[in-house]
Amino acid sequence: MLITTDWNRRLMAHPRRGIALYSAVMINSLLVGLLALSALTIVRIERRSSESSGEIVAAQMHARAAIDLALQTLRTDSNWRTRYLDGVETDPLRFGRGTVSWKLKDASSPPDGNLGNHEDDPVEIQGIGRTGKAVWVHSAIAVDSGELRELGPIQFETSVQRNRYNTVNASKWWGQYFKPDLPAEATGWKVTNVDLYLASTNQSTDLLQVNLYTPDNNNLPQVLVDRISIPQSDLSWNARWHRIRFSGNTDLDPAKGLCLSLECTSQNAAAWFAYDNQRNTNSDSGLIRGNQASGWTSYHPRKALCYRVMGTYTVPSGLTLQFGTFKRAGGP
């Protein structure tokens, strides 16, 4: 005998209603699955969009960095107009998570595609930044302003060895010839500070004269370009470094050196000073001897004052970005 429950009786009595209920459950399950799949897809799309946005931002920053790098490279290369070709991209350089490169384009009016036929022609710098799949190009016009930039202060020359001491008076003048090692593009230089190892003698009321001269062909002082007078009261009893500040010399010839001198017009000693009597090996440096009666008389390349010279030098400012020309450019 077949025994059925009440539920089975109902299903057997209404078979269509059971099929409908089953279909509803399956449809709901399918909808839930589709919604879950859609959610995962949206997450993937948003993640890719976020990664893409990050790459675009990084590429933009790389493109700007590429312009700055190109500008600094051109400023230190006097032959850049012949070294680079119009519209040819440089080899990419690794930069963070991507690369930077640039290309130059003639920006004369009208452009002739030649970077090197006129030295004052403006140039368009296109900086190219790449990160992942993102590529960005920034553009700016650079011009040569013809102005000079002052660099420094730097230490031009120094000799800190000291194995002898002597005094300065009218019969014993002392000097130092030196020539700074300047960059090839330097157009001029000047001395701002000189450090000397000095001490007071307390014997003279006359001033110690610390002078700067341009040299003659024998590296002896010739033309006075700056002078500082130092009273005994400004010197210490014990020998130590004293700083002398100069401001009257300017635009010195970068191909020539300079003479620093210690002078006095009294027979009483105006100061003690230290010097190196035998160990100077700098070919562009030497000790100078003289006196008030005869002037400067001898040059000694193996000897040197105990001194330090600081100053600045000027170079052409080179290319500068023209205000208002920075923009996004087309693809590389």
What does this molecule look like?
With 332 residues, this protein is of the alpha+beta class. The protein has three helices and 19 strands. It has helices at residues 6-13, 15-75, 80-83, and strands at 93-95, 98-106, 123-131, 134-144, 148-159, 164-168, 173-178, 188-199, 208-215, 221-230, 240-245, 258-263, 271-276, 285-291, 295-300, 304-305, 307-316, 319-321, 327-328. The strands form three sheets. Strands 5, 6, 8, 11, 13, 16 and 17 form a seven-stranded antiparallel β-sheet that branches. Strands 1, 2, 3, 4, 18 and 19 form a six-stranded antiparallel β-sheet that branches. β14 (285-291) and β15 (295-300) form a beta hairpin. The protein is elongated, with a radius of gyration of 39 Å.
Please give the structural blueprint:
Layout: H1 6-13, H2 15-75, H3 80-83, E1 93-95, E2 98-106, E3 123-131, E4 134-144, E5 148-159, E6 164-168, E7 173-178, E8 188-199, E9 208-215, E10 221-230, E11 240-245, E12 258-263, E13 271-276, E14 285-291, E15 295-300, E16 304-305, E17 307-316, E18 319-321, E19 327-328
Antiparallel strand pairs: 1-2, 2-3, 3-4, 4-18, 4-19, 5-17, 6-13, 7-12, 7-14, 8-11, 8-13, 8-17, 9-10, 9-12, 13-16, 14-15
Helix pairs in contact: 1-2
